[in-house]
Amino acid sequence: MKYRKYQIESIGSVLDKYMKKSPLREKLREVDALEAWQKIMGPNIMYRTEKLYMKEGVLHIKVDSSIIKHDIFMMRNHILRNINEHLKEDVVKEIVLD
């Protein structure tokens, strides 16, 4: 009788291997990017944010204040860099103000 050789692995390492190959990885990274936006920009900006979503690496933002919209527009490259540094991966390719 032949015995199979099983290699014992932790659940965390198995999930990491699965997530690297899974199509869900992209969506989960997008959710992480939205959470990073909230942490980086703070509660005052989040209070003024009407709509926030990711689609194909583009972070879409709608705010209810033209002043905040202008500030975000002027700082969008800096914000993009901060989000990607927070995630340690280039998830957000562009920021678009709706």
Q: How would you summarize what this structure contains?
A:
The chain is α+β, with helices and mostly antiparallel strands and 98 residues long.
Low-confidence stretches: none
Instruction: Give the amount of beta strand, in percent.
Output: 15-25%
* Largest β sheet strand count, sense and barrel closure: 3 strands, mixed
Q: How many structural domains in the coordinates?
A: 1
Determine the mean pLDDT: 89
Name of the level-1 CATH class = Alpha Beta
**Distance, first to last CA:** 66 Å
Helix content: 55-70%
Q: What is the topological layout?
A:
Blueprint: H1 11-21, H2 24-48, E1 49-55, E2 58-63, H3 66-87, E3 94-97
Parallel strand pairs: 2-3
Antiparallel strand pairs: 1-2
Helix pairs in contact: 2-3
Could you walk me through the main structural features you see in this protein, from its secondary elements to its overall organization?
- With 98 residues, this protein is of the alpha+beta class.
- It has one domain (24-97): GMP Synthetase, Chain A, domain 3 (2-Layer Sandwich), CATH 3.30.300.
- It is built from 3 helices and 3 strands; from the N terminus they run H-H-E-E-H-E.
- It has helices spanning 11-21, 24-48, 66-87; strands at 49-55, 58-63, 94-97.
- Strands 1-2-3 form a 3-stranded mixed β-sheet, covered by helices on one side.
- The longest helix has 25 residues, at 24-48.
- The protein is elongated, with a radius of gyration of 19 Å.
